[in-house]
Design goal:
Pnp Oxidase, Chain A, alpha+beta, 32% strand
Length: 163
C-alpha cells in the first residue's frame, strides 16, 4: 500500500544555510500552507536530470493526495525517461510569492500498490480537477525536503526534512 506521510509533518528546521529564516516559531509556516497551496495549484513545474546530467524542466498536471504530489504523463516522454534513469526530482509551484518547493524521488505506482477504492479516489480527484474522462496520476514524489514561504519576502521561509 501507498505509505502516507504522517500528520503533522516533521518539525520545521529553523535555519537554512545562506538564508535568513525566522528565528522564532511564530513566523514559521504550518504544514497546512503546503497542503493548501499544492491542492489549489492547476499545474506543477518539475525538474529532473537528463541523460547528460543536465536539468530538464517541464510543467505537468497533477494533484496533491496523501501529502504527496501525484502526476501523470506518457512513459515515452523525455521527462519520464529521465525519471526512470534517475529518480531525483524537484517540484515547485508557478508562484514566486506563495512558494512550495519539494525535493525528493519520483516513484511510480503499480496497479497492485493501491486497492480499487484507493485508485478510484486518486483517479476521481485527477479527472475532476482537469475535467477529463480518463487519467491516472501514477507517478508521485517521495519528499526528502520541502521549503515554503508566503509573501514576496522570506520572513516566513520554512523548511521540513523527511527521513
Amino acid at each position: 500500500m501507498l505509505q502516507s506521510l504522517t500528520i503533522p509533518a516533521p518539525q520545521p528546521v529553523k535555519k537554512v544555510p545562506g538564508y535568513k529564516m525566522p528565528e522564532t516559531a511564530e513566523y514559521l509556516l504550518d504544514w497546512t500552507f503546503v497542503a493548501e497551496e499544492m491542492t489549489k495549484a492547476q499545474y506543477y513545474w518539475i525538474a529532473c536530470v537528463n541523460s547528460k546530467s543536465g536539468p530538464h524542466v517541464v510543467p505537468l498536471w497533477g494533484i496533491w493526495f496523501e501529502h504527496r504530489v501525484h502526476f501523470d504523463g506518457g512513459p515515452k516522454t523525455r521527462w519520464a525517461q529521465n525519471l526512470k534513469a534517475n529518480g531525483k526530482i524537484a517540484v515547485h509551484l508557478p508562484s514566486a510569492e506563495q512558494v512550495v518547493v519539494i525535493e525528493g524521488r519520483a516513484m511510480t505506482l503499480e496497479d497492485n500498490e493501491l486497492s480499487a477504492e484507493e485508485w478510484a479516489v486518486l483517479d476521481g480527484l485527477y479527472q475532476k480537477k482537469y475535467a477529463v474522462k480518463e487519467g491516472s496520476p501514477y507517478w508521485y514524489v517521495q519528499p526528502s525536503k520541502v521549503i515554503a514561504w508566503n509573501g514576496a519576502g522570506l520572513q516566513t521561509m520554512t523548511r521540513w526534512i523527511f527521513a
